[in-house]
Design goal:
Radius of gyration of chain A: 27 Å
Oligomer: heterodimer
CATH class of the largest domain in chain B: Alpha Beta
Number of domains of chain B: 2
Structural class of chain B: alpha+beta
Helix content of chain A: 40-55%
Radius of gyration of chain B: 21 Å
Order of helices and strands of chain A: EEHHHHHHHHHH
Largest interface: A-B, 31 and 42 residues
Order of helices and strands of chain B: EHEHHEEEHEEEHEEHHHHH
Shape of chain B: globular
Number of helices of chain B: 10
Shape of chain A: elongated
Number of strands of chain B: 10
Distance between the termini of chain B: 28 Å
Distance between the termini of chain A: 78 Å
Largest sheet of chain A: 2 strands, antiparallel
Chain lengths: 188, 344
Amino acid sequence: MLCERCKIREANIQYTEVFNGVKTDHHFCAQCARELDFGQYSSIFEGEFPFAEFLSALLGGETPSKRQEKYQQIVCPTCGTTYDEFVKNSCFGCADCYGVFDVLIHDNIKHIQGSDHHKGKIPAGRQADGEDAQQTADPSETGEQSVRSRIQLLERQLKDALRKEEYETAAWCRDQIRALKEGKENDV
Amino acid sequence: MSEWFEEIDAERKNVVCSRVRLTRNWDEYVFPSRLDDGKAAEMIRRLCEGMKDIDGLLGLKYDVVDLSQLGELELRILREHRVLNSSIIKKKAPMAMLLSEDESVSLVLNGADHIRIQVLRAGLHMADAWKMANEADDYVGSRFSYAFDEKYGYLTSFPTNVGTGLRAAAIVHLPSLSLGKKFPLLVSDMARFGVLIRGICGEGRENYGALYEISNQKTMGQSEQEIVDMVSRVAAQLDDQENQVREMAMKTHRLVREDELYKSYGVLKYARRLSMKEAMSYLSQIMAGTADGLIRFSRPVSVPRLILGIQTANLQNLSDKPLDKDELDAARAEYLREELPQLC
């Protein structure tokens, strides 16, 4: 069948329009389809025909590649490992990567390891630090606890924000957490 | 000093060895995959400098081995001895190792992670191996600050090692159990306990010599002691089950077993050419036969040592020249003819 618009090229796109309960079938070639205005679906006729994009456009979701792009922008400031590289090699570049990619990889780690919390040996020095901190924090335990619960709350908010891809909120949460962690003693 | 694989565990005869590995990183450097050669060399130098007084740790003497200076053959021999793994020997960056004389304790520097502590013990001595690894870890940890996170534990290059960073493994010999119809089921059942079991010699589904490595699948959420106990328990369980099957076979098919065993001995002692597959299968018979007291030699023999002896890199090394496949098979047969003692 020839394209009903140009009547030159072979029609390879069938467009079904339902208007006031009346169904009309149209047959266009790819080039004419690109030139016509199909509202929000126009993008699917541009360039190649990516199936995934087509599907997610229909379902009103974001295209996977766009989503990927946003994750790709996350880079570990210490070693320069990108999220993309991590996915490719499943290998971290430095200790800080765990913090940077935490929200993105948390579920994966839980899946691989069946747990997301370390149990067992703690390096000798750290243990002593922890005990010291607890001892000094003892007199004002409630204050310490409220800071800790605030951090936990913020961490949850940060996770939510990242899931919704609200990066500004996420950044704000991250800064707040950092400030709370650093200024713990001062606050208490 | 004799090497660790010369010993045999009289209690658990089907358990060849126990191994504990700890993966650690120094918080002053990025992980090896992101570390440039200059920084890596600097880190190795500082690590070696800081561990100058290592002699005496666990009552052993250590050599510093510059892995980047070793030839391919030497690296492959270390791999056959289970001191290094294949990803380390392929790596081109600066790497070093502190290796005890008997090869039982090794600290690989700048492998997949900054420091990999490994302790190997003959037989089922997992608790011992962990105790030794823990002591070595305390030694290193008191000199360098580890990359550690309250939530994730010891931070490692691969998320599969994070947490305790501990991998406990045992090599078990299961010639009869692995012939059973239920064996594949047993293998898949192991996964439910978080234990991985795999054949160590051969390709695909084949496993010549019936040697299996069992190890913990997960490194986080369980304490070191729990992991070590679990792998140890599974190894002991497999050893018991293997013995049960063999005892049964001894009652009903003693002649068949003896026949297979002595035929194997005959082939190993007199053959002129032996492929890896043949040699491993016959040595497996010898190992089971010695464990069950069906065969006696004029002097004690360690089958694990013979298995290491017939590996490709070791034979290449003994012959001082590169060997093609036929020459290799001939060298393997010759090695076994000489090393296998007479019967008594």
